[in-house]
Amino acid sequence: MMRWLFKLVFTMFIILIMLGAGLVWFVYPEEKLDLTYSNLSITGKISEMLKKRKFEITLTEQEVGDLIKKQLILSNAISPEFQIKGARFELESNLLTAYMNLSYMNMIDIGTVTYFELTWNDPNVTAAYQRTEVKRFVLPTAWLMIQSIEIPVTDLFPSVLGVGNMAFEKDSVRISFKLNRMLPPKNK
After folding, report:
1. What span, in angstroms and rounded, lies between the C-alpha atoms of 22 and 26?
2. In whole angstroms, how far apart are CA 11 and each of 1, 4, 18?
3. Distance between alpha carbon 94 and the CA centroid of its chain, in Å?
4. Distance of alpha carbon 95 from alpha carbon 130, whole angstroms
């Protein structure tokens, strides 16, 4: 009887280890991602605007992704048990898809797909969290506790330029500018 009980416990232990290993394998990221980003070339964007003689610029999908990566690094947008190891972004109008590699307590690497909705709330672009999936399984919001990400767009440009309008296009963001008042109004 004792031998049979030992075999049962040992078999259950092996099954649990196999299930745990299978789960780790299942959630493991499919692609290697990092958090490197390029700073937005403001002078290049302004000279592009002057050449086109339009008071607007276009941020590419890559530039939007770089701005969001920078904010992810600067902010605590995710639960403390998780660390963001890498990210890649795809923009489809005002919907942002973030392919992120996370680490749970620096032990288990997880590949996720997180969805955000972009909105313009002067002076910031807000990436409002929608949901997170692991291999098409939606995770409960409470697990990751991802916060909305605020991107201070107006801080990127000289103070003489104000953002007049922002349009989210297929795979880019078009920013139209207005001139900010430089001198105080004259007193009469």
Report:
1. 6
2. 15, 11, 11
3. 13
4. 10
Residues 84, 74 contacting (CB under 8 angstroms): no
pLDDT tens by residue, 109-120: 999 999 999 999
Any idea how long the chain is?
A: 188
Beginning with the edge strand found earlier in the chain, give each strand of the sheet holding 172-179 in spatial order. Answer: 56-60, 172-179, 161-168
Which residues are registered as beta bridge partners of 82?
A: 104
Residues linked to residue 178 through DSSP beta bridges, in sequence order: 162
Phi-psi region of 132 (alpha: psi -120 to 50; beta: other; left: phi over 0): beta
Is the pTM higher than 0.85? The answer reads no
Q: Are 40 and 70 in contact (CB under 8 A)?
A: no
Among 85, 89, 79, smallest CA distance to 151 is for: 89
CB 93 within 8 A of CB 117: no
55-94: pLDDT as tens digits: 888 899 999 999 999 998 888 778 888 899 999 999 999 9
Under DSSP, the state recorded for 153 is G
